[in-house]
Amino acid sequence: MDYLLRTEGLSKVYPNGTLANKQVDFAVAKGEILGLVGENGAGKSTLMKLLYGEESPSSGTIYLDGKPIGFSSSQDAIAAGIGMVHQHFMLVPSLSLAENLVLGQEPKKGKSSFFDLEKAVAITEELGEKYNLKVFARARVVDVSVSMRQKLEILKALYRGAKILILDEPTAVLTPQETDELFVELQALRSHGHTIIFISHKLNEIFKLCDRVSVMRDGRMIGTHQVADVDRQTISNEMVGREVLLSVRKDKAKAGEKVLVAKDLSYIDDFGIAALDHVSLALRKGEILGVVGVDGNGQSELVRILTGSARSLSGSVVVKGRDLTNQKPGALRRAGVAHIAEDRMTVGTALPASIEDNLMADRYFHPEYKGRAGFLKQAAMARAATEIVTTFDIRCKSAKQPVSSLSGGNMQKVVIGREFTADADILVIAQPTRGVDVGAIEFIHKRIIEMRDQGKAVLLVSSDLQEVMSMSDSLVVMNSGKIVAYFEDASATTDKELGLYMLGLKKQNPEEIGKVLHE
Amino acid sequence: MSDAKTRGPGPLASVKLFFTDRDKLEPAVITLLAAIFAILMGVGLIFVVSKDPVTSTKNFLLGPFLRTYNFYYLLVAMVPITFTGLALCIIYQLKYMSLIVDSSFYTGAIVATAIGVRLALPAGWHPAVAMLAAGLAGGLIGTLPAILKIKWRANELVSSLMFNYVFYFFGSFVILYFLRDRNQTILASMPFQKTFALPKLVENTQLHAGFIIAAVFVALVSIFLFRTKWGYQIRITGANPKFAAYAGIPVASVAIFAHFVSGFIGGIGGAVEMSGLYRAFIWQMNPSYAWDGVIVAMLARKNPKFVPVSAFFLAYMRVGADFMSRRGDVAFEFITLLQGIIILILASDKIANYFKARRLRRNAFAAEAALAAAPAGGVRSDGGGKGTAGAAGTGGKA
Ligand SMILES: Nc1ncnc2c1ncn2[C@@H]1O[C@H](COP(=O)(O)OP(=O)(O)OP(=O)(O)O)[C@@H](O)[C@H]1O
Ligand SMILES: [Mg+2]
């Protein structure tokens, strides 16, 4: 077979000495969708960055159309028809979608050198029409949903003439419906003759979308299969080297007393929209309360208010009988509220700081770590950090290296590792398994259940409907900043029914919803 | 657990560690190379502009050591820039850009002058009280740009530069209206009390006890930044303020406190300068040691431990250039050019990490080659020394 893009013996050593790609032979044929899977830190993003000219290989060769190429920057890759949508979005939030699309290749007014916004909008709409990726060209990036940002990233690559599209975990931030929509669009692109490399940790997506799948482990290419000829177990064995249990096993919850009661919370966002509209709920010991809803229906605001990162305009938050309404995050943490932030890059970690410093940031003042006169017990801190690194399998050379040098999934594990070991009674968890591999998902789910069984109260917010449904004991559904349904027993509902509530087509009466307060 | 462990290696051991730990040694070597390069450029420049380049070069390079007076003067010149350099290390660890330490230093000198002139206190106590008061004044002033930034998001670089004018003129006003010696034709304060002077370290030189005080502060600031909870808070807040807030660190108070400490050190620097070097306040202009502090802090890579080295180097260049300019035809100002070169080199990360990147690449490939040479079965090279022994693995079968 003639491959469009191919690598031979490609290796990459990062400046800190990490050998992220080892002699990788990789190939993708014209007009196919190739899946790329592997554990966190296996080297998937690194390989893609090499193909995209963003990092340069330490050794080995890349062939495009049979000719060896050496990109010195992603500009060269774009010129050669390669486009990439990164694991972490690279858009300018304060600009409109149209402006973001043309950034760097702006249309000009006539012969002048002034930017022509109208033309940019027209280009965006036309392109969206052509590839069936519809976006609001005039809206600002901050105002649109994650899935629309995703589409914009794809359009951006297409606008620059990409024939080969690299998508690094595009579905990690999408809801199931949005994922389905994306797949239809990607298949349309394939029929247009585009070639797509698709990275995901969700095997069902690979099986649904891809023609072939390549597996990486520990920097090496393990193998490539026709999707039709292979089963999941083989792939996950190649990825992890063992069997992975994907279904969640848990006993029935023994719900105890209420430990957190939130009443009548409201939040108006920067655009004057009521992002949270008089929401009340209670968390009980030994119970997981799941929150489902299409992304952007108030879940983030709810989490931020419950953890002290945003202020509510009304109502109260009472933790174990103490009124902590609109207190700082520090106060809530001291009261026993741990928080896994959904945005691990800008909030959940300090990228330039070491893994150790990141893991200790909420506890450096505890007596185990703080000696007399403000001195820190650094040996004790190092020991505790190393222990978390081992327990949570954070793949790194040492706990002293900066978090910025970790792979996406391992950054997430730093956040998880800190919050799960915080010794809190209440866990507010947002998107815990976003971007982590199957092995780690299994581990995280098991730990959440374990903590519930130890009598902790858990609020679980995730855009992965499957995850919330299987993990939660009770459920609330959010739509337009309100709670529209409460299910005391999460297993008593179906995803179909939840879908109706999520889309706002159905709503329970206030009495039923009010039961979430357990009064 | 044990105290010995938590305190880390002793001073001698840590020196040894420093020279065997290449991650730490290499940046130092590169900084040194930058310094040598700047000096070589300076010599080249002398050869271009001077009629007697050999003598000028000799005066520039060896001047600080040719005369005892010059050498002691070099040591004395290190003192103020050590204080401002330390102050700026703290600000830079916080990732702020304020230059308010200029005001803290200047106002510290003014406060010390007032105490030196007006108060009658026993020797020893007199300069100590002045330093404490100057430190407090400097610290309070230091917090202003941080408060403005936190309350109204005012850019701290701009506001601190503005404040520097305000406090400079306020200081001049105080001298002029309350402390001026009317018998002098130039602007000068009344003479300090005898008790105000810091003792000299060496008779008949300018070298004063302030040198020791500066050395003590180097140690204190190192400990503060890298061993205490306050230093930890400052470093984390500097690394990502949003994360720090989320983790429960009171970021606003941390920023203000860090500025207070920084200003406190600046203020003490001003007082030390007054009681160590002068008999009255005679500055006709603001000496602006904050700008020198920027160079010192950069050369030291924000690490207080290296501040004395970089302060020595800057003072060495200054004293050499001064000596040369007074005995030849090269102007003193040419060292600003050398300072520019140094800053340019040090500001480049790529240069700074050159050796390290090269060495690590070599090491990794050596490891790879060894791995490839190992007998088969090495395909499943789980971890290979990485921390992968994992709980995630315990769930499955062995
Ligand atoms: N800039 C960097 N500097 C040093 N090491 C890095 C850097 N970027 C990645 N690495 C390391 O390279 C290895 C591979 O990382 P990569 O991001 O390619 O993994 P990945 O397969 O994309 O994982 P994930 O599924 O978690 O995104 C990891 O061990 C990571 O720590
Ligand atoms: Mg990745």
TrEMBL record, chain A:
One of its GO terms (molecular function) is ATP binding. It holds the Pfam family ABC_tran. It is a peripheral membrane protein. The lineage of its organism: unclassified sequences, metagenomes, ecological metagenomes. Signal peptide: none annotated. Residues 5-243, 260-505 form the ABC transporter domain. Keywords: ATP-binding, Cell membrane, Hydrolase, Membrane, Nucleotide-binding, Repeat, Translocase, Transport. The keyword Cell membrane applies. GO terms for cellular component: plasma membrane. It comes from bioreactor metagenome. It is found in: Cell membrane. Transmembrane segments: none annotated. This is Galactose/methyl galactoside import ATP-binding protein MglA. CDD domains: ABC_Carb_Monos_I (cd03216), ABC_Carb_Monos_II (cd03215). Its EC number is 3.6.3.17.
UniProtKB/TrEMBL annotation, chain B:
This is ABC transporter permease. InterPro entries: ABC_transp_permease. It comes from bioreactor metagenome. Residues 380-398 have a biased composition (Gly residues). Its main location: membrane. The chain crosses the membrane at residues 28-50, 70-92, 104-121, 127-148, 160-179, 207-226, 247-268, 330-352. Keywords: Cell membrane, Membrane, Transmembrane, Transmembrane helix. Residues 376-398 are annotated as: Disordered. It holds the Pfam family BPD_transp_2.
